[in-house]
Amino acid sequence: MLELQNKFERHLQRSRFFTSADKVVIAVSTGVDSMVLLDLLQQLPSGLRPQIIVAHMNHELRSQSWEEEEFIRQYCQQHHLELAIAHWPQKLHPPRGIENAARQARYHFFAQTMKNYGAHILITAHHQNDLAETMLMKMVRGGQISQLIGIQDQRKFAGGMLVRPLLPFSKDILRQYAMKRQLKWYEDKTNHDLSIQRNRFRHEIIPQLEKENPQLLAHLESYHYQLAALLAWQQQEISTQLAQVIDDHDNLLIDKLVVKSYYMQKLLLQRWLNVRQVYDVKTNQVEELLALMKNQKTPQQEVLLPHQFIFEKKYSVGIIKKANNHFEDLQKPQAHVIELEQWYQVDEKNAIAISFNRKFFNDDSTVMPIWISPRQFPLRLRGWKKEDRLRLRGGHHQKVKRVLIDQKVSADQRQQQTVLVDAQDTVIWLVKRKWSWLDRPDDYQEKWRLCFIGIKIRRKTDE
């Protein structure tokens, strides 16, 4: 018991997540992990212990939820802790994707609690097992190597930081601590539902791997920190070397690129494309571009890239430009499901993002507040269609095509025009041009959410 307390204190001293002067919001579900986290924080010496605000969300998913809520009320009263509680009413539960919807509701509540109490730090009880599960799940799904980091021990959140100080500690260690401290906690039966992928990794796959090597969790944690350090170094190195292979106009100097190692060529080319606002280029196309640049028999050639961009090889220089009109029918904006607080490119210069927190946007963003009902999520960004309509005040509608004609939008720009739509494919915003009329709900406190949609000019340093 004392061993975990001592290790936890040393970990906090090294990581410097917070100070004793900070107000921190602790996400407490009443499960064993969060109850151990809360107890460990309470046991800290006064020189390390922050000002604690407990945040508990009653998801109304189980009959036990109200018992858990009453327990945490009594606990906080007994320990003289500030407590914030919110409910996620059953009438707001979606028929599908309830796990993700619950997470969004929960973190929105955490962000609001931080704002209400003037706290800038949210602490969650993610631990070593959670990290291992996430890393293995990402590995199975495939994607970018940066995703294999899994869970970060700290990241930006709601204008402050979200920190996870239990990542170095396993579930078994936390449970042993809870039993020795005679802590009370509640078990969530849904954590044993094997129809959920994470539960299969937790109860079936990882135990089998631990039979092969009992140090599996510690090794995956070590890989996590090694990979994070390597990727941080890599990003710095790429930035340094990219400056060596571009000219003053950000064109690519092919002769200087191709003398780099092959793997560095690929990394530099991918970064350069992103700097030039070209995204979604697949690995095989990156390799084709490198082959073209090295082909001395082809001094000039153009290659069509996603989102109506063209790579032009012009002797020893690589150039990015917009596609000519004869390419218009070949490329259309790709559809994206919008994730909160992620920037999405909408044209050559601008990007948009959506957040529940106005503070997410800097002064360089133009922000529009709108009320969205739960049934409208998720929002999507896609190319416009000829049947798309905007809702006008009074219940009338106007075709998107008519707006584009009235605003004298060129054919090339129309081809790249995007719209923001809801889950029913109803147009909310003809991006940069016109909003649908959105009524302010009378019952917004119960059923609707205030969202902020921001648009900004994307700088070359934005990624």
Task: Explain the overall architecture.
The protein is α+β, with helices and mostly antiparallel strands. It has three domains: 2-228, 3-Layer(aba) Sandwich (Rossmann fold); 243-327, 2-Layer Sandwich (Uridine Diphospho-n-acetylenolpyruvylglucosamine Reductase, domain 3); 336-457, no CATH class. Helix content is 38%, strand content 21%. The chain has helices at residues 2-15, 32-43, 65-78, 98-117, 128-141, 171-180, 197-212, 216-242, 254-257, 262-275, 283-294, 400-406, 411-416, 444-447; strands spanning 23-27, 51-58, 82-87, 121-123, 154-157, 160-163, 252-253, 300-305, 309-314, 317-322, 336-337, 344-345, 350-355, 365-372, 380-383, 389-391, 397-399, 418-421, 427-430, 434-435, 449-457. The strands form five sheets. A six-stranded mixed beta sheet has the order 3-2-1-4-6-5, with helices on both faces. It starts with a helix and ends in a 6-residue tail after the last strand. The model is unreliable at 325-330 (pLDDT under 50).
Sum up the structure in keywords.
alpha+beta, 3 domains, tRNA_Ile_lys_synt, Uridine Diphospho-n-acetylenolpyruvylglucosamine Reductase, domain 3, Rossmann fold, 463 residues, six-stranded mixed beta sheet, five-stranded antiparallel beta sheet
Query: CATH-wise, what's the superfamily of the largest domain?
Result: HUPs
Strand coverage percent: 15-25%
Q: In CATH terms, what is the architecture of the largest domain? A: 3-Layer(aba) Sandwich
**What is the oligomeric state here?**
single chain
Q: What is the averaged pLDDT score?
A: 90
Form type: globular
Please give the CATH class of the largest domain. Answer: Alpha Beta
Helical fraction equals 25-40%
Poorly predicted runs are 325-330
Counted by DSSP, the helix tally is 14
CATH topology of the largest domain: Rossmann fold
Largest sheet: 6 strands, mixed
Kindly, what is the distance between the CA atoms of the first and last residues, rounded to a whole number of angstroms?
44 Å
Computed CA radius of gyration, to the nearest angstrom: 26 Å
- In the residues, how many domains can be counted? 3
* Number of extended strands: 21
> Which strand order spans the largest sheet, edge to edge or round the barrel?
3-2-1-4-6-5
Structural class: alpha+beta
